[in-house]
Amino acid sequence: xxxxxxxxxxxxxxxxxxxxxxxxxxxxxxxxxxxxxxxxxxxxxxxxxxxxxxxxxxxxxxxxxxxxxxxxxxxxxxxxxxxxxxxxxxxxxxxxxxxxxxxxxxxxxxxxxxxxxxxxxxxxxxxxxxxxxxxxxxxxxxxxxxxxxxxxxxxxxxxxxxxxxxxxxxxxxxxxxxxxxxxxxxxxxxxxxxxxxxxxxxxxxxxxxxxxxxxxxxxxxxxxxxxxxxxx
Length: 232
Ligand SMILES: C[S@@+](CC[C@H](N)C(=O)[O-])C[C@H]1O[C@@H](n2cnc3c(N)ncnc32)[C@H](O)[C@@H]1O
Hints:
Number of helices: 8
CATH class: Alpha Beta
Bound molecules: S-adenosylmethionine
């Protein structure tokens, strides 16, 4: 969308990636077949700032990949409350969801990515804020008993509309959904008769959300297109 030269200029004039994300960005490019799936420096910085602006208590991400956007958003969340200071022996560590404070749940279907994601969550010091679920998002979402302040949809494109319809009732009024890749490399403006199932999924999603009276929406043409949706 943006010319390479303007993209590089924008990156060079944006606060540098935190070290943990710069390392993950590099590792992802060395180890993954499709490293371009990662949000990257600019989009990561945008997601972190959105989280800092909204101060969400509960965030859901659908599509973790190597963890870049989860860490970027997690770094924008307030730290959890400190444990009570005492000389007493510590009780068994509570699960992240039992500790209070802001939480980000992230869902990834590929079990081969699990160890790497858990490692980078630890490296970022976000074990208390980021909860990883491995499995099909369609199966996992109904079991998450939360009201979401922010949902980031970034998984399989044919299911975008299913994810939207599943999560919208559990987004609090005034809460947000952000969907990535809604311009899909420009293919959304092509001939519908020649579209593949991913493009059709995105086109169907964009059209539905735009006409949905329960929300207001904005397509931000940065990177591959971000749809920002606010529940009324
Ligand atoms: C574009 S990548 C996510 C990138 C990540 N959000 C980031 O910005 O760094 C999409 C991820 O969604 C995962 N995914 C695809 N289908 C899924 C499904 N049905 N349930 C959960 N995750 C899925 C893929 O395995 C892939 O890792």
